[in-house]
Specification:
Protein name: Peptidase M16
Shape: globular
InterPro entries: Metalloenz_LuxS/M16, MPP/UQCRC_Complex, Pept_M16_N, Peptidase_M16_C
Family: Belongs to the peptidase M16 family.
Strand content: 15-25%
Structural class: alpha+beta
GO biological process, one term: proteolysis
Radius of gyration: 23 Å
CATH class of the largest domain: Alpha Beta
Oligomer: single chain
CATH architecture of the largest domain: 2-Layer Sandwich
GO molecular function: metal ion binding; peptidase activity
CATH superfamily of the largest domain: Metalloenzyme, LuxS/M16 peptidase-like
């Protein structure tokens, strides 16, 4: 199974101070951050970066499929990622792309369960135009009902495309089994029937925009080579009049799982069998180490130095790959172990092998040297992942959106450095237990050659 955003395995040795004042860099995050909150609630973070005339412009809105609490109205956070490129009265559809294309900007976006993130990457010379255009669309998005209906059909086509591979159906089946109340029960794309009904929900889409695309629900990250005073003057000028307030909703809480659950997908075509073990685990938080523990736990249990990897992938060669779909979430979600098998008859052997590693960890049998090696490797990976302004901006925006604070990346990195073997063992004992487990399997259709089953 695969999430929309890959896992970010980042680590550092020292926490950075809060962002009330400009910061000095550190060995693991060697860039200065400057943060200002406008009167309307918009948080603006600037990161000077020696990129020689290049800038990254990242806008993160704290809205995802998590916010879709109304029956029949799922998938709208993702849908709005599409609609945000439709234009405004000042900059009609196509003009934004023409202007940014003139400068050579790379421009894209993605939606997850918890956030929607937009980024542009290109020359600093185009930054004044970019600030004007971005502020205009976030304040004054405009689209007609026919345009809305056309894009709704495009989103339906995107669902059909994704449904042609096993990952989406696996995620749907797992969510349906693991969640009974919380909005994580549906994927970012939404329930299929809701997607089909989208063309009739034009007015609701306008309401969705007014509810969530608000300055107090948005953070802006500008990373690269630019004049800070000039940038802030332009930001205040263009974003200052944005005056909407974010909506208040009650996301249903998921009750504790008290017994094992199973889900199964019969895949109608030949493919490799798949297995997912998933447990409910705590949300990511700026004030706890829960997400940091789970990030380290992935590498410890199924990383390339793990006994499970050596046994299942290298020695016995029962699986093509093992891994995890764990990604930080704003509310309690799932920690998972995944396996792509070579033969369906090995389901039980693979399942028991993975559970055995979890049991060893919960019993306190932890290889402290390997934990340290994982941390050292992650520290190197963190530095290597910050090679361009786009890398820095997206990672800052991701953790800010999830953790709700502009210094979210630094907090996550600091927590990752503090993970201890004893904490890993206690976490596994508390959360990775049989009554909290949801087991998903996928069985492919038998191929003509007979090699799948």
């Amino acid at each position: 199974m695969r999430r929309l955003l890959p896992l970010l395995l980042l680590l550092l040795g020292t926490a950075l101070p809060a962002l009330a004042q400009p910061q000095a860099g550190s060995q693991a995050f060697p860039y200065t951050l400057k943060t200002e909150k406008l009167a309307n609630g918009l948080t603006v973070v600037r990161v000077p970066y020696p990129s020689q005339g290049i800038v990254s412009y990242v806008t993160v809105v704290r809205v995802g499929s998590r916010n879709e609490v109304e029956a029949g109205k799922t998938g709208f956070a993702h849908f709005f990622e599409h609609m945000m490129f439709k234009g405004t009265k000042r900059h009609p559809e196509g003009e934004r792309e023409r202007i940014l294309g003139t400068f050579g900007f790379d421009d894209n976006a993605f939606t997850t369960d918890d956030i929607t993130l937009y980024y542009s990457y290109g020359p600093s010379a185009g930054l004044p135009f970019l600030i004007d255009i971005e502020a205009d669309r976030f304040r004054n998005l405009e689209y007609s009902e026919p345009s809305f209906r056309t894009e709704a059909l495009a989103v339906l086509g995107e669902y059909h495309k994704n449904a042609a591979a096993p990952y989406l159906k696996m995620e749907e089946a797992l969510n349906a089994a693991a969640f009974t109340k919380h909005t994580y029960r549906h994927t970012t794309l939404g329930f299929y029937d809701d997607i089909k009904a989208m063309p009739e929900a034009y007015q609701y889409s306008r309401d969705f925009f007014e509810r969530w695309y608000t300055p107090d629900n948005t953070m802006l990250f500008i990373v690269g080579d630019f004049d800070d005073d000039q940038v802030m003057q332009l930001v205040r000028e263009h974003y200052g009049p944005w005056d909407r307030k974010t909506a208040s909703i009650q996301v249903p809480k998921e009750p504790p799982q008290t017994q094992p659950r199973t889900a199964h997908v019969d895949w109608p075509q030949p493919t490799q069998p798949r297995l997912v073990l998933a447990w409910h685990t705590p949300a990511a938080s700026a004030n706890t180490s829960d997400s940091a523990l789970q990030t380290v736990l992935v590498a410890y249990l199924v990383g390339p130095t793990s006994p499970a990897y050596k046994q299942l992938v290298l020695d016995k060669q029962l699986v093509e790959a093992i891994g995890s779909d764990y990604v930080e979430h704003r509310d309690p979600h799932l920690f998972s172990l995944t396996a792509t098998l070579k033969n369906e008859k090995d389901y039980d052997r693979v399942r028991l092998a993975l559970l055995q590693e979890v049991s060893r960890l919960a019993a306190g049998k932890v290889d402290a040297a390997r934990v340290k090696a994982i941390q050292d490797n992650a520290r190197y990976g963190a530095l290597m992942a910050l090679q361009t302004p786009r890398d820095v901006g997206i990672q800052l925006g991701w953790y800010a959106g999830i953790l709700g604070t502009p210094d979210g990346l630094q907090r996550q990195l600091a927590n990752l450095a503090k993970v201890t073997p004893a904490q890993l063992s206690e976490f596994a004992k508390r959360h990775l237990k049989a009554t909290n487990l949801t087991l998903l399997s996928l069985t492919p259709k038998v191929s003509d050659a007979g090699g799948t089953k």
